[in-house]
Amino acid sequence: MFVNRREVQIQWGDCDPANIVYYPRYFAMFDDSTSTLFEVAGFSKQDLVRKYGLVGIPMVDTRAKFYIPSTYGDWITIETKIESIKRSSFEVKHNVYKGEALAIEGFETRVLVGRDPVDPDKLKSAPFLPEMVAKFTGS
């Protein structure tokens, strides 16, 4: 499996009045981490649009399990990988570490989306390309 790790420092604006990260901020970090995963794998947003004719990779489901809070100034590591790929949908897992400890598990279901060839004003799921499957699964 192709995995990307990125270090993120918790900023003042990420925190609530109790000085812990306000949970929706993690979902924004997960979104950035998924985009970064594609970029590092060689599939930039520009490539998805121009080369592969996709519109994007919208999220259709998300959830998280929170174990350890983070506060302003903490450094966390977000480890992101695609856990499974179907025809056009895929499951993303984010493990967030605070030091060596697992702080959060984040989960996303996303879909590759392009323009409907019959009606370009509509969107339609698009199949994963073999080179993407190979890169993300290692097969």
From TrEMBL:
GO terms for molecular function: fatty acyl-CoA hydrolase activity. It comes from Bradyrhizobium sacchari. PANTHER family: 4-HYDROXYBENZOYL-COA THIOESTERASE FAMILY MEMBER, ACYL-COA THIOESTER HYDROLASE YBGC. InterPro entries: 4-hydroxybenzoyl-CoA_TE, HotDog_dom_sf. The lineage of its organism: Bacteria, Pseudomonadati, Pseudomonadota, Alphaproteobacteria, Hyphomicrobiales. This is 4-hydroxybenzoyl-CoA thioesterase. Keywords: Hydrolase.
